[in-house]
Amino acid sequence: MTQPKLAEVAGVTEVAEVAGMSEVTGTDANMLAGTDAEMLAVDGVTVRLAGRDVLQDVRFAIRRGEFVGLIGSNGAGKTTLLRVILGLQVPTAGTVRIAGRLRARRTGLVGYVPQKILLDPDMPLRARDLVGLGLDGHRLGIGLPSRSRRNLVEEMLRAVGAERFADERVGNLSGGEQQRVLIAHALISSPALLLLDEPLANLDIRSEQEIVALLSRFSREQQIAVLISAHEMNPLLPVMDRVVYMAAGKAASGTTAEVVRPDVLSTLYGQHVDVIHVHDRILVVAGRGGEPGTAHEEPDVAHEEPDVAHEEPDVAHEETGTAPVGSA
To answer: What's the CATH code of the domain at 293?
Structure first.
């Protein structure tokens, strides 16, 4: 698997090959002009690693301003799919198009928020500094301060509700506060497509709801296409336009009503699955009648208590997504 090249920028390890963090270029703007069609088109993507199909013929598309949930359990292939879209993983078959063009490694059209960042609490990097790196962190050297840059950073901090802890060290922030800063970092370059890898993991219920509402507002107001991966779909139901549901490297996409049905999910999992609606929540549970001896994973069971911590990020047969934040 291709590993990103690393560069040290202001004491923070940045993923240089992912970081298309500059403003949208003239070429990118032309690609967006008048675009009312697909912002992201994934067509027949297959990834085979170590003799195993991690992704199998995955197909879906996202239009501008759509909010799409990428749902699946550990090892379903969500992080590998995001890596393909980012250009970090070459697919064995299939194509990815962004604004109608084949995916390039560097474009200002895509913003990315990883599962987590690893920062020492003692690192003297403030929240406002990390947001500012979304503008020029991909360039060598330290960017020169300017009034326009400061204004952009302040505006984005206000937009995500992070101004009160703007001068705090990022390593000392809570999980919800860090997510706001990472989202600001990804959005400051004005991407047309925003990818988020498990941003709700390990957040409490209040922070989870606030982050979902924040992302939905940006998607609606700025017509940003959002693809957000998660184990649990229920926090996304109030704002989700469509869902890409993954299991064992396969995917089914459409509206929630079209995809989250016993027949569709039973085919996807290769065993009988029940879908239960309770108090505006959807529970997906393994039903009776599955084929004996099948090795498919158990479907996500969505009836945990609200305060139960989320599962660990995807680790089975794919990269964890633990990486510095950037845009691509």
So the answer is: 3.40.50.300
